[in-house]
Amino acid sequence: MQSTKEINISIQSHINVNAIDNILFFGKESASFETQKELSFIADNTDMESKSHLTATAGNQILHQVGDTQIIAKGDSVIIKAGGVEVIIDSNGLVVKGGEVKSEWEYALYNLYNRRYRLIYYS
Asked: Structural domain of residue 74, as residue ranges?
């Protein structure tokens, strides 16, 4: 099917496009998929690449998940779940459940203290 201007296809029920090998949707200026209810991409591997900006916008939440590890972004909070630890960042601050917060500075002081070194502060 070819056209120098445009092609409009209107179906009342559904359209199936099947190919044994590959299907390519290409637009020199833009390409869009739009639906009122649900859009799914299912594959063994999915790659997304943007040479400039990538924006993901959702009305309720965005979920990034690999195995049991999750990053959930909501309108008022971000929740990170990994290895049995849950980190919540919201208007109350940062809360860690099932783990502890450590910093490199605390670790350095701990190592200095346990090796009997003295840290002297001059003002």
From this structure: 61-114
> Across the chain, what does the average pLDDT equal?
86
Find, among 72, 104, 107, the residue nearest to 86 by Cα: 72
**CB-CB contact of 68 with 78 (8 Å):** no
DSSP tag of 5: S
Cα–Cα distance, 17 to 23 (Å, whole number): 9
Q: Tens digits of per-residue pLDDT, 50-93? A: 999 999 999 999 999 999 999 999 999 999 999 999 999 999 99
Q: Residue 37 above 50 pLDDT?
A: yes
Tell me how far apart the alpha carbons of residues 100 and 84 are, in angstroms, rounded to a whole number.
12
End-to-end CA distance of the chain: 79
Reported as type and span, the H/E element at residue 82 is strand 78-82
Angle at 109 between CA 105 and CA 115, to 5 degrees: 145
- Which residues does residue 70 pair with via DSSP β-bridges, in sequence order? 65, 81
Split into its structural domains, the chain has a count of 1
Tens of pLDDT along 17-30?
899 999 988 888 99
